[in-house]
């Protein structure tokens, strides 16, 4: 299941147990090749 959370810095996606975010402009949310990992417990 794919969830997304929009915040002031951009968009954060949950794909399974992984959370991802992009520092680059986002064209779509299906190509996450250059996205970085986000760890909610460290936020």
Descriptors:
43 residues; mainly beta; 4-stranded antiparallel beta sheet; 4 strands; 42% strand
Describe this structure in words.
The chain has 43 residues and is mostly beta strands. The chain is built from no helices and four strands. Strands 1-2-3-4 form a four-stranded antiparallel β-sheet, with no helix packed on it. A hairpin with a 2-residue loop joins β1 and β2 (10-15).
What is the number of E strands?
A: 4
Q: Write down the secondary-structure element order.
A: EEEE
The value of Rg in angstroms is 10 Å
End-to-end distance, in Å? 22 Å
- Overall 3D shape: globular
Profile the largest sheet.
4 strands, antiparallel
Strand content: 35-45%
**What is the mean predicted local confidence, pLDDT?**
77
- Please estimate the helix content: under 10%
Poorly predicted runs are: none
Spatially, the strands of the biggest sheet line up as 1-2-3-4
- What structural class should be given to the helix and strand makeup? mainly beta
What is the overall number of helices? Answer: 0
Layout: helices, strands, pairs:
Layout: E1 2-7, E2 10-15, E3 18-21, E4 36-37
Antiparallel strand pairs: 1-2, 2-3, 3-4
């Amino acid at each position: 299941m794919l969830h997304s959370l929009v915040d002031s810095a951009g968009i954060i996606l949950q794909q399974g147990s992984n959370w991802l975010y992009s520092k680059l402009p986002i064209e779509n949310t299906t190509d996450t090749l250059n996205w970085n990992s986000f760890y909610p417990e460290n936020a």
